[in-house]
Amino acid sequence: MAKKKGDRTDLLTKEEMDKLLLVVSSDIYFAALYNVLLHTGRRIGEIYGTLRGKELTGGIRVKDIDFPNKQMTTLILKTKKRRLQVECPSCKQKTTYKSLFCPNCAKPMPKIDKEQLLYSFEDKKTISLKDNLIILLKMYIKKANKKQNDYLFRELSLSYLKKVIKKHIKTAGITKNFSIHGFRHYFITACKRAGMSNEDVAKWTGHIRPETLNTYNRLVPKDIEKKIFEVEL
After folding, report:
1. Pair 48, 154: CB distance under 8 Å
2. Are 140 and 151 within 8 A, CB to CB?
3. Residue 110 CB: number of other CB atoms within 10 A?
4. Which of 226, 219, 228 lies closest to 193 in space, CA to CA?
5. Measured between alpha carbons, how far is 1 from 159 in angstroms, rounded to an integer?
């Protein structure tokens, strides 16, 4: 699905990210949510839950965090295209459905419902958490009096979370367009700055195709400049 105008999130600098986190530091809910998104690189749908039909699926519960081993398990919901074999009504040759016309005889192919080309699947991924995030989550869970089966961040609606971050950005004195998905951009870009390959990052983030991470490669000019200066000519 094509992104709508305004969906693209700007990349924050470390100083700007620190300012944003400082704005919510006194609110344990947002402090915990933003730090989880920032330090894990998970999608908001994996943390909060993803709408499937009329119900939310996935989302982190208290029991999904293994505090002794400092790990968290998230459910990754993905949609992938099927490779449907379709028979051309004219030349009877079967081919993988890719276009409206047969690659053999150029005659029109039968129309396919787009939903038939897609299928959804689930995958669980366990990642490690840093000590400071473990401490923050323990504080949040205790203060919110959450039980093992409770979701961590469902007190507020997802639509509200996507709106209120704009207020937090403004309060922090940041003029960039930053969305809640921007934490994932920040995380992946930081990994790329550290020299990690797409393949290694994809194992953590849950991307099916490592090359997809090229869309997250938002290195600022200073990063590129540093690499250029290190090149021996």
Report:
1. yes
2. no
3. 11
4. 219
5. 19
Domains of the chain, with CATH numbers?
A: 14-230 (1.10.443.10)
DSSP symbols for 132-179? HHHHHHHHHHHHTT--TTSBSSTTS-HHHHHHHHHHHHHHTT--S---
Q: What are phi and psi of 43, to 5 degrees?
A: -70, 155
What is the chain's pLDDT, residue by residue, as a tens digit (233 residues)? 334 444 478 889 999 999 999 999 999 999 999 999 999 988 898 999 887 667 777 889 999 999 999 999 988 766 556 667 788 888 888 877 777 788 888 888 787 766 665 555 567 788 889 999 999 999 999 999 999 999 999 999 999 999 999 999 999 999 999 999 999 989 888 888 888 777 878 777 766 666 667 666 665 556 655 665 665 55
Core vs surface per residue 171-189: b (16+ CB within 10 A) or e: ebebeeebbbbbbbbbbbb
Cα dihedral 38, 130, 200, 83 sign:
negative
Contacts 24+ apart (CB under 8 A), 211-218: 213/188, 216/184, 216/185, 216/188, 216/189, 216/192, 217/188, 217/189, 217/192, 218/11, 218/185, 218/189
